[in-house]
Amino acid sequence: MSAAASRTIALPHCRVSYAEYGAEDGMPVLYCHGVPGTHLEGEAFDEAGAAAGVRVVAVDRPGMAESSLPAGERVADWVDTVVELADRLGFERFGVIGVSGGGPYALAIAARLPERVTGVAVVSAPAPAGEQADAAELDPVARKRRRGLNVLRRIPFLVHPMAMEMSMVIRRQRGVAGLVAQMASVDRERVEGDAELTAKLEENLRRSFEQGSRGFATDIRLVFTRDWGFALTDVTVPVQVWHGDADGNVPADDAHRLAAALPHGRLHIVPGAGHLLFVDRPADILASMGGEQS
Prior knowledge:
The chain is α/β, with parallel strands linked by helices. It is built from twelve helices and eight strands.
C-alpha cells in the first residue's frame, strides 16, 4: 500500500482526513497520532503491517492535516467521529494503536466500543492528567516537561499562547530542531543520525500546523488539562502498554501507572528506548496485539 495514499471523507458533522498503510485487505487497526501529529506517522507501520496482514488506518484529529474543527470538550468525544468513520469504511471490529498523546484517544475508543475493539496498544503514552510530584529520579528533560504540564493544569489558558508560539517556530522551519533539543539524548541521537527520519518528522510537524495552532492547542487541553471522559477501569479489552525506559517526553512512570490501572493491561518496558519507540519497534507492537486480532 502506498505510504503517500491519503483521503478525506465528509461525515455529517465534520471532515476527516486519513491514510492507509500496511496490507490493503488486512485486519483493520486504527492509528491515533501523537501531539502534535498527523496520519503521516502511520507510515512507521507500513512495512510491518504488510508483513503481518494488518491494514493500518491513521486518522487525523480535528485541526490536523485536513480534518476540520471544532473538536469536543473531552477526549472521549472523539469516539463519535471514529464510529462514523469505521462504519463508512465497513469495519465491524478493529484494533487500535495510540502513540504518545494519541494513547488517551485509543483508550477512549476501547472504553466506549468494547464490542468492536479487539485489542489496543498504547506506545509512549501519558497517564491521566493530575498534579504529579517533581520526581528527583527524572532526568532534567523529563523534569522540565513535567513542571510545564503541572503549570498548564493549574493555568489552562496558557495552552493557546504556547500553541501559537510552537506554530510560529514550525513555520520558521526550526520545528524539528527545537523539539529534538527538548528530547532525551537517546532520541536526539536517533534523529540527528537519520536524515530521512528528520525529513519525515519535519513534514509531520508542518502538516500538524497547516491549519494553524488550534488543533494542537485542543489536543494539549483535552489530553493534559481535563478529565478524559472515561475511567481506565472502563477499558475492558486487552491493552499492550509499550514504553522506553529512557523516554524524556513521557516518563516510564506513566506506563507503570497505566498498566496498573487497566483491567487487562500488559506492560512492555524497552531498555534504552526513548519516545520514538514506535519508529523502531512497529513489528513487535503489532505482534503483541496479534493474539487479539481475531
